TrEMBL record:
Coiled coil: none annotated. Keywords: Aminoacyl-tRNA synthetase, ATP-binding, Cytoplasm, Ligase, Nucleotide-binding, Protein biosynthesis. It is found in: Cytoplasm. Its EC number is 6.1.1.2. It comes from Blepharisma stoltei. It catalyses: tRNA(Trp) + L-tryptophan + ATP = L-tryptophyl-tRNA(Trp) + AMP + diphosphate + H(+). InterPro entries: aa-tRNA-synth_I_CS, aa-tRNA-synth_Ic, Rossmann-like_a/b/a_fold, Trp-tRNA-ligase. One of its GO terms (cellular component) is cytoplasm. Belongs to the class-I aminoacyl-tRNA synthetase family. GO terms for biological process: tryptophanyl-tRNA aminoacylation. The keyword DNA-binding does not apply. This is Tryptophan--tRNA ligase, cytoplasmic.
Length: 390
């Protein structure tokens, strides 16, 4: 399918089979490219080799990353803000991408993370979901998020409905400065959308202001915030950055990821809104094997002879793309890139590697998730001081 323009919104991703044109998106959204100099600086500041999601250009665009790096260089505090919209009981691999990077950034920069669970958003935006269902999903999603390895002493997880009294003052300030036209223009709503949908976006904005967390940042409103996320969330933070100076707050910095593609191809992202596009962290070994074998779109040749002659098109090949996101071993990935690209190995062989890697990743995750008790969830959600140097 050839589209004239890619569609990238928080609600819908549609592109050609080659996937989103990310350079075009940078120009369209007005953000900046993550450059090799940024990666080098992260390595110099932290003394650690950059995470492969950064090294491989999967986190590819930013706003004000330099401000965060300068803050870190001066050994001043900053914090990370990430989140999840609880639309399903289980997370899929695409949801893991921001959590993997946030956990790594927390570790190497030794900074706090706040994690917003937007139960209100999913209730309002998904007609078929009841508030009770969304609350149940929230708790299960939090279990998955904790299993990603966040540090209890430096992480605060909250649902919007439980933490609203702390968010409300900044929410009001944002609302006073935002017009309905701005919201309509930014998110494409119209007059027949429910009022809750239209009022929601500033609630996703306010965790980017440090005084929304007085128990962590002691009412300071000038602690810089970095938001690593996929680029579909950019509209929320374009609005936030627009309003922040008007209410005397710092603009948050953002770091954008490319989309972890749907099993069927790069024309859209893996999404819980369409179950067939996704591998869940609850899938069995068999399920993973079946999904990859039956659905993962191949960029290999149509016949074996064709494949041997021309090699695979790695740009559109879903198994290779998944390996690029998830395989830590650079040498092995490069070997696959070379051999598969030349047609020396087949899609079946690459899928076998991928199935093994995904089965291990999901099984390891299940073990860690089993260790996450209800008490531990309550501890992560407790309104408390964190181990933060201010
Ligand atoms: P879904 O339809 O699967 O629920 P979503 O975008 O509504 O998708 P959220 O939980 O709201 O999911 O997103 C949480 C974070 O995960 C955001 O930063 C979002 O950009 C990111 N994310 C979601 N899906 C993907 C994906 N396929 N690839 C990369 N990041 C993703």
């Amino acid at each position: 399918m050839d589209l004239i323009e890619d569609i990238v919104t928080p609600f819908n991703i549609q592109a050609s089979e080659k996937g989103v044109d990310y350079d075009k998106l940078i120009a369209q959204f007005g953000c900046q490219k993550v450059l090799p100099a940024h990666i080098k600086e992260i390595e110099e500041i932290t003394g650690k080799k950059a995470h492969h999601l950064l090294r491989r250009g999967i986190y590819f665009a930013h706003r004000d990353l330099e401000m965060i790096l300068n803050t870190a260089k001066m050994k001043k505090p900053f914090y990370l803000y990430t989140g999840r919209g609880p639309s399903s009981a289980a997370l899929h691999l695409g949801h893991m991408i921001p959590f993997i990077l946030n956990k790594w950034l927390q570790e190497v920069f030794d900074v706090p993370v706040v994690i917003q669970i937007t139960d209100d958003e999913k209730y309002l935006y998904r007609q078929e979901l009841s508030l009770e269902q969304v609350k149940h999903f929230s708790r299960e999603n939090i279990r998955d998020i904790i299993a990603c390895g966040f540090d209890l002493n430096k992480t605060f997880i909250f649902t919007d409905t439980s933490y609203i009294n702390f968010l409300y003052p900044n929410f009001l300030k944002m609302q006073k400065h935002l017009t309905v036209n701005q919201i309509f223009g930014c998110f494409g709503f119209n007059g027949s959308d429910c009022v809750g949908k239209i009022a929601y976006p500033p609630l996703q904005a306010v965790p980017a202001f440090s005084n929304s967390f007085p128990h962590i940042f002691r009412n300071k409103n000038d602690i810089p915030c970095l938001i690593p996320e996929a680029i579909d969330q950019d509209p929320y933070f374009r609005l936030t950055r627009d309003i922040a100076p008007k209410i005397n707050y710092l603009k948050p910095a953002v770091l954008h990821a490319k989309f972890f593609p749907a099993l069927q191809g790069l024309h859209t992202k893996m999404s819980a809104s369409d179950e067939n596009t996704a591998i869940y962290l609850t899938d069995s070994k068999k399920e993973i094997e079946r999904k990859i074998k039956s659905f993962a779109f191949s960029g290999g040749g149509k016949t074996l002879q064709d494949h041997r002659e021309k090699g695979a098109n790695l740009e559109v090949d879903v198994p290779f793309q998944y390996l690029s996101f998830l395989m830590e071993d650079d040498e092995r990935l490069d070997e696959i890139r070379q051999k598969y690209g030349k047609g020396e190995i087949t899609t079946g062989e690459v899928k076998k590697d991928l199935i093994g890697l995904l089965q291990k990743l999901v099984e390891d995750h299940k073990v860690k998730k089993k260790e996450v008790t209800d008490e531990l969830i309550d501890k992560f959600m407790e309104i408390r001081e964190l181990d933060v140097k201010l």
